[in-house]
Design a protein that fits this description.
Length: 214
């Protein structure tokens, strides 16, 4: 884990397990827990209902090893084609591991409002994923927002222009950033009011090939 991340452990820094090769994810979670940082897990479900991101059993093992660890989930699905049963299971996973919050697209939030209410009723906050093209408006039924600086599941460099959304949204709701986050982007995000800073490759010191989103 990069030294700069350890210095931001009390400012909402979280390491993305999807950025790490599966065999190294337990060690990455251990390092994050030891530093007092959080864990962020991309739960990616394709149109056939298969998991393409962090596996549920991996996440449950992390929780078993670290009962007090701050875990959040990012559910990445095609809201039109992903089987509802898999969505239900993903939200149940968030409840099972005691996630602080789960982020999902505005479309999924709207289409599966009943499942979202169930997760919220079990104590999991529901955040909505936002991109620069969405502008600063927010769906009414969101407890927070996750500003994506790159498309979910990709390896691009962060778009600093998207930080303008953090500045606009942070006064309204808890706001996080994700996607290509470096030390410089993390520090700028904090200045703009971000409460959750998700970083993968830059934080966890890895050039490992990660899984590809569908």
């Amino acid at each position: 884990m990069a030294a700069w991340g350890r210095g931001l452990a009390d400012r909402g820094i979280a390491g993305s397990l999807f950025a790490v090769a599966p065999a190294l994810r337990p060690d990455a979670a251990d390092a994050l827990a030891a530093a007092g940082a959080g864990v962020h897990a991309d739960i990616i479900i394709d149109a056939q209902g298969a998991h393409r991101g962090v596996q549920p059993e991996e996440l449950m093992a992390v929780r078993s090893r670290h009962p007090g660890l701050d875990i959040d989930l990012h559910l990445i699905v095609d809201a039109d084609s992903c089987p509802e049963e898999q969505l239900r299971e993903a939200l149940a996973l968030a409840v099972h591991v005691g996630a602080s919050h789960i982020s999902l697209s505005a479309d999924a939030l709207r289409r599966h409002a009943d499942l979202v209410r169930t997760a919220r009723g079990a104590g999991v906050s529901v955040w909505v994923e936002r991109r620069l093209s969405d502008g600063p408006s927010l769906p009414v039924d969101a407890d927070g927002c996750l500003v994506m600086l790159i498309p979910p599941g990709t390896l691009q460099d962060a778009d600093p222009a998207a930080l303008s959304l953090v500045e606009a949204l942070a006064p309204q709701l808890p706001t996080g950033v994700d996607g290509g986050v470096t030390r410089e982007i993390a520090l700028r995000s904090i200045r703009y009011g971000a409460a959750r800073i998700v970083s993968g490759r830059a934080l966890l010191n890895t050039d490992s090939e990660k899984g590809k989103a569908p």
